[in-house]
Design a protein that fits this description.
The protein is α/β, with parallel strands linked by helices. The protein has nine helices and ten strands. It has one domain: Vaccinia Virus protein VP39 (Rossmann fold, 3-Layer(aba) Sandwich), CATH 3.40.50.150.
Length: 222
């Protein structure tokens, strides 16, 4: 009888552990663990290619926890959606790259997750607009977060991820963790690829691989 009561209590009366996630593959759950769990201090994130303020977002869970940061996207409708749902964040309309120039935006349709400035990655998508690119450093320098250390940098820009990473002054902004999209399904190719070489050169190591996302951690966390 005591065993039955113990089992009943564990199944029906024990506190439930929250499993709310917003990322496509649960990246936010993994990041939460890496950043110290629910007691993680309120931090600062930068989300380049944020797309939607909540759905599939790697940063919305942290927004709900009180974190704040900078959201960047190249479509006006996405920027407006983020400003509606996440008024505490600074949301910017911009395309990010390591070269500042006027470029075309390609996408199958507006508000698509596949919107890009990389014509080769557009897979036959049509041109939906024009925009001028900026470096991530110059964007951050024009905000209230100038020179603030980044706790979490998320990059998902459909083929221009390396250029975004190259456009940040890592010495000044020193992200603790960096999440970047990868379509490679072999670790050997990832380790030989240009994104990993760039991150290793900036003193980062792979902390996790979740779905289509690589999570890098800064080796020296000064």
């Amino acid at each position: 009888m005591r065993d039955w009561l113990l089992a009943f209590r564990k199944v029906f009366l024990s506190p439930r552990q929250s499993k709310t996630v917003y990322s496509q593959f649960g990246e936010d759950s993994v990041l939460l663990h890496l950043l110290g769990g629910r007691k993680a201090r309120q931090g600062f994130y930068v989300d380049v290619g944020c797309h939607h303020p909540r759905k599939g977002s790697n940063t919305y869970l942290f927004y709900k926890m009180g974190w704040r940061g900078v959201l960047v996207d190249l479509e006006q409708a996405k920027v407006q959606a983020c400003r509606m749902l996440r008024p505490g964040d600074t949301t910017l309309l911009a395309a990010v790259s390591d070269v500042e120039e006027e470029v075309s935006i390609y996408a199958p349709e507006k508000f698509s997750v596949l919107a890009t400035i990389d014509r080769q990655a557009s897979a036959g998508a049509r041109e939906i607009g024009r925009i001028r690119t900026r470096t991530l450093t110059s964007l951050l320098d024009d905000t209230a977060y100038r020179d603030r250390r980044i706790d979490l940098l998320n990059v998902d820009v459909e083929g221009v991820d390396l250029q975004v990473l190259r456009s940040l002054d890592f010495a000044r902004y020193q992200p603790r963790f960096v999440v970047v999209e990868t379509w490679d399904d072999k670790l050997e190719r990832i380790l030989e690829g240009p994104i990993h070489h760039h991150m290793a050169g900036q003193n980062y190591e792979i902390a996790a691989w979740v779905g289509l996302s690589l999570v890098y951690r800064r080796r020296v966390d000064a």
